[in-house]
Specification:
single chain, alpha/beta, 5-stranded mixed beta sheet, 8 helices, UDP-N-acetylmuramoyl-L-alanine:D-glutamate ligase, about 50% helix, 2 domains
């Protein structure tokens, strides 16, 4: 993580990496190209450690905004019924219907998807006209929104085909169709 910061490389942190970051927040604090993708339990630990409070589901939007701001502008993709994404300045919600079947490995596919979209968004924003009409110019937020939307759609498609026997491989097989549905190639 330190090397990524020194070389200005985006990082997406999930799973055990979140445990490490929660216990050493300085690894990512102030690094705008860091994305944290906590599930419910990982988010709870982050909130308790960084904000010294309990998770507030009633005002979840404000809490994820405060958390990202307190960590210094990292982007947080809080996984849940609706994914909440914040960089400390803005909050986006992705509530495309996913799948009632959560299977191991979905978070890994999401993290990889976010990394790809973050990279593409970063290249697009650097090359874009400064007067472009993008409502959000943070590549990490854009990458999270795109990755979340694609993953949710792929999970939904996989569940339609496999129902309760859906596994992560089935979701991976639906990524192309999901991407095409969300952003058709011209």
């Amino acid at each position: 993580m330190r090397h990524a910061r020194q070389t200005n490389v985006p990082i997406v942190i999930d799973g055990d990496g979140l445990f490490l970051v929660t216990n050493n927040i300085d690894l990512v604090s102030g690094y705008g190209l860091a994305v944290l993708t906590p599930n419910v339990n990982e988010y709870k630990r982050l909130v308790e450690k960084v904000l010294s409070s309990e998770v507030n589901d009633v005002d979840a939007t404000q809490q994820v905004l405060s958390l990202a701001k307190k960590i210094g502008g990292v982007t947080i993709l809080k996984k849940g019924k609706s994914d909440l994404i914040s960089d400390g300045d803005t909050v986006k919600s992705v509530s495309i219907y996913g799948s009632p079947r959560r299977c191991g490995g979905q978070g890994d596919v999401l993290s990889g998807s976010v990394a790809v979209f973050l990279s593409w968004a970063r290249q697009h924003i650097i090359a874009a006209d400064p007067n472009s009409n993008l409502s959000c110019k943070n590549p990490a937020v854009l990458g999270c929104v795109a990755g979340s939307a694609m993953m949710r759609k792929a999970a939904s498609l996989a569940f339609c085909h496999k129902k309760r026997s859906t596994v992560t491989g089935d979701i991976i097989e639906c990524l192309g169709e999901s991407l095409e549905d969300i952003c058709p190639a011209t």
